Amino acid sequence: MLQADSLLDILNRYEHVEEKQETFIDADGQEQVKTVRHIIFPRYHQLDVVRKITRDVCAKGPGHSYLVQHSAGSGKSNSIAWCAYQLSTMFDESNKPMFDSVVIVTDRTVLDRQLQETISGLDHQQGQITVIDDKCTSKDLRDALNDGAKLIVSTLQKYSMIYEEVHSIGKRFCVIVDEAHSSQTGSHAIHLKQALADTEEALKEFADYEEQWEDASDYERDGMLRQMAAQGRHDNITFLAFTATPKKQTLELFGEEMPDGSYVPFHVYSMRQAIEEGFILDPLANYVAYEEAVRLAKSIPDDPDVPSSPTLKLLRKYTELHPYAIGQKARVIVEAYREITSRKIGGRGKMMVVTGSRLAAVRYQHAIKSYIESQGYGGIEVLVAFSGALQDLADGAEGPEYTEPGMNIGHDGQHVKESQTKKEFHNWGAILVVAEKYQTGFDEPLLHTLVIDKRLRDVKAVQTICRIDRTCRGKTDTLVIDFANTRDNILKAFQPYYTETDLAEPIDTDRIYGLLREIHGYHVYTAEDADAVASLEFGKDRKNVQGRIKSLLTPCAKRYNELSEEDRYQFRRKVRSFIKWYGYVTQIVRMFDRDMHKDYVLLSYLSHLLTADKINVDAIDDKVQMDYYKLNETYRGAIELADEKGKLEQNDKRAQSKLNKRKDPLSELVAKINEEYAGDFTDDDRVVVDALYRRLSQNERVRESLTHDGETVFTDSTFPKIFGDEAMDAYMGSQDAFASIFQDREKYEAIMRAIAEMLIRQAHRGWDEDDDSDSDDE
């Protein structure tokens, strides 16, 4: 790295001075701004990835994809900037520019600024970078592409407005995708490819399918064929995809295919390596998990029949949002902040509380501030972050409307603008309560403690928890307090991304054909409907196309509404799945299947008309009451990850999701929530049952058996062995908590039978309903 030729290359094309404006609070408590300058020098993995990519592109030319799996703390922004700059100045063997434009796709304003600063430090030509920010329109992006701007930075969404107006014939593009695990299979990503693809080359492949299109109409051969020609991979587009957490789709879209059919990243800088080299902290080194012991009671004399599944969800929501439950957790939060967080990083440590909904965020901020006031604690500023406005029905019909700026009072006693929340939190804030905000792309090195009261899984869990791994002077550790997940669930989420992530096998493309046959079986629309929609979508008359298509689909929506409740539920699921998988598969291969493409166009429009059934369930608050609530700490310590490659598997075999529309008496559903089973069942036993159920519901052997073996074999043969193994593992992890179930054989059998019944019911409803961690209901 420091040999003469290498060092000269680094000084010429990498090293630059970075200037940052930093705010700080002076001795008089006044906010001051200072300019900080740093000399930026590439770390080994940054130099290595830039050189390997540029060498490979130089040798192979355009048209290939490169997946870069670099951990948080790897300096992805600088790596992207160096790649972009060097690729934009690269020439081919004919001494022509390798790329007409290098396009960076990002949603991070931080990267926009850093790219400009890095490039300007390397190249003093004015106008080297064209940034299409919020002040620019989609037409500015179109003009930059058509005029051959060397470096273009824009969001993905802007391509949907101009993809038909870009002149891409004969041009070559390099697309660098920041945070490539998100939004690379949706309509915006498809429009980006349609904008940049040289479809003249792709249409040469059409000769193999010519016979199937002999009877094609003008609109099919013109608009629709050109749109389909943009599918698959293109020799004029090179993709560089940067992410710390590649999903299965990301690996297959951008990864390198191995001889055994698996897909691997082109370059890896792992989380393990970043931790070992001290560029990030281990976010799982200090992890504390809590579980809730709850007892509800029916508070009305009647026992009405109510829909089972939605009422169980309402009861869970009632428990999660109950003022007493939130109050108890608020006490834990504030005391943890005072005893631990506030003493970290030289007294500057900060805490974030991640909630499951906007209403939860509102109630949490109220509860935390109320507890601080009741204890006479001072100097703890509590901020909240969520989008939009909402009301809390507990305040009554005339209650106030809550917004982020309306709830946030800054250090100066004034309301904090939404755009200033981050700055206020950095300078003065102590605790920030969030709902679907700042879980990704939030870089606050002073953030020491993360409190979680939301179910998380897979990439979402990794992204959220890694908010606390940033380093700064004086920061030596982190803390996670988790009210909603188990140690095993978090371990399962992180393990694939600890070292290198591979995809074991590509997706089976036949899946979408089978799915489409199932959709046709509901007879909601006909082939004539699909033809009519496609003729409007791809026809020359563009006036009010969406409105005319919506009118065409009105009879289809009527046929959908005439289906049974169960069929409507299944049809919606299958339509969403087909749209997702068709968009994914056609990013990889060109299919030239015009009938399927017509189905895709129709279903993309129809999906917006398929409203979910509104379940008429009265508010639950005045029908039940909470008799008992206790928080129990179930784990404290580090979550140790194995030093092995992460392997993602395609998971097509799943228990069929069913809508459980059975009506049960309210008392019976309350009893299910309370888990009142045979024997001398104490409140501690309830905690045990809940912990075992959570473990077993995530057990792959349980899911596999329920999918393939049937309920009888599962209950009588498979499950007793699985239950015994999990119960023993739980006992070895916490002997005091789990000892009672081994001391009473009758209790052991009762708990095992009850959990088996709960798992069977969950399999009928669909595992995703129980695992859904992405909902943000009020």
TrEMBL record:
Keyword check for Ribonucleoprotein = no
The residues covered by the Helicase ATP-binding domain are: 57-264
Q: Which UniProt keywords apply?
A: Endonuclease, Hydrolase, Nuclease
Q: Which Pfam families does this chain map to?
A: SWI2_SNF2, T1R_D3-like
Under InterPro entries, the record lists:
Helicase_ATP-bd, HsdR_RecA-like_helicase_dom_2, P-loop_NTPase, SWI2_SNF2
- GO terms for MF: endonuclease activity
| Alphabetical list of PANTHER family matching this protein | HELICASE SUPERFAMILY 1 AND 2 DOMAIN-CONTAINING PROTEIN
Question: By what name is this protein known?
Answer: Type I restriction endonuclease subunit R
Give the source species. Parolsenella catena
